[in-house]
Amino acid sequence: MSAASAAAPLTRRALLRTAFTAAVLAGTAAALAPVLRARRPRQTLTPAPFTEETYRGRHIAVDPAGIRVDGRPLHVMRRADGSYLSGINHFQSFATPLELARAAVDELGTARLAMAAAPHHG
Predict the structure, then answer these.
(1) What is the pLDDT of residues 39-91, one digit of tens each?
(2) 38 backbone dihedrals φ, ψ, rounded to 5°
(3) How far apart are CA 102 and CA 110, in angstroms?
(4) Spatial contact of 95 and 83, defined as CB atoms under 8 Å apart
(5) pLDDT in tens, 3-53
(6) What is the C-alpha to C-alpha distance for residues 16 and 61, in angstroms, rounded to an integer?
(7) pTM of this prediction?
(8) Cβ distance 47 to 66 under 8 Å?
(9) Comparing C-alpha atoms, which of 92, 117, 120 is closest to residue 106?
């Protein structure tokens, strides 16, 4: 008896069992994917804590509460790609909050930031 004849022929039952097993494995993987993704550490949306410096004569402070230039808050937005932009120059993105604050100081020149108004989003 040869090796080819010793192997069991592929029956309809074996084919359906294989397809069912593959479907169960695919469904389990799809169900577990969000759980496994959630275990990864997430990026924080807050700037690096407690960075302070004087840049071109202006005091820049970056902490979890936000970014301040000479004690006045700088409105900062986080983009989907992880970069930052501000209301001072919202056409250019910056990799870090500190780079953004320096660019804002460059753009402001001798002008000061306005004090933050009351939130208008309802």
Answers:
(1) 666 655 554 557 889 999 999 999 888 899 998 999 899 888 989 999 888 88
(2) -70, -20
(3) 13
(4) yes
(5) 555 666 789 998 999 999 999 999 998 888 887 777 666 655 554 557 889
(6) 65
(7) 0.55
(8) yes
(9) 92
Q: What is the DSSP string of the chain?
A: --HHHHSPP--HHHHHHHHHHHHHHHHHHHHHHHHHHHTSPPPPSSPPSSEEEEETTEEEEEETTEEEETTEEE-EEE-TTS-EEESSSTTS-BSSHHHHHHHHHHHHTT--PPPPPPP---
Name the one residue in this structure whose structure tokens are 């840049």.
55
- Give me the residues paired with residue 33 across strands: none
